[in-house]
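hiii, so i know i said id send this last week but things got crazy w the move. better late than never?? heres the sequnce for the chain we talked about at the cafe, plus the structure i predicted for it. fair warning i was half asleep when i ran it
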Amino acid sequence: MTGTMMDIQIEDHGIQSLLRRIQRQTQNLTPAMNIIGQIVRTSIVRNFEKEGRPQKWKAHSETTEKRRGKGASILREESHLMNSIHPKAYFDRAEIGTNRVYAAVHQFGAKKGAFGTFSVMQQVKEHIRKIKGKSQKVRAHKRTRRMSVPWGDIPARPFMLVQTEDWDKIRESLSDYILGGKR
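okay and structure toks below
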């Protein structure tokens, strides 16, 4: 380096102590990453409770409303997906996820038949059917039907989102951890 250079020595015991504390705290960030994971998990649970943040999720289809009832919670019939969200902390990062295989479909959506089709054997019971105005008896029989998976479009309902306000909480928690609870 050319030009003028200055050697800075810190003799202030308070600053030296602070720097040592920062050095100690940053050797293993697992506890801080655990805190960050919990902040994000709480935010994701809130996304479920609010049925989408910052934008509301698309409402249920008519078919789902008929099955579950008008006004039923979106993505929370039994809360299995919401309750499966868990953070994992490492020394240098936090991860959050779910073990539910259907989670990606709800997060990103899926078009009818996106996962292919399958055959279903149906047992048809004996019944009466009107054909051209006359009642006729239909014998019991079996039939095979091809079904799409999913059988209808599923809209994306993104729940794994970190909200803007969460970043302030994450920064504050990280600062508190690194500075040993002192700011």
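btw The chain has six helices and six strands. thought thatd interest u
miss u guys!!
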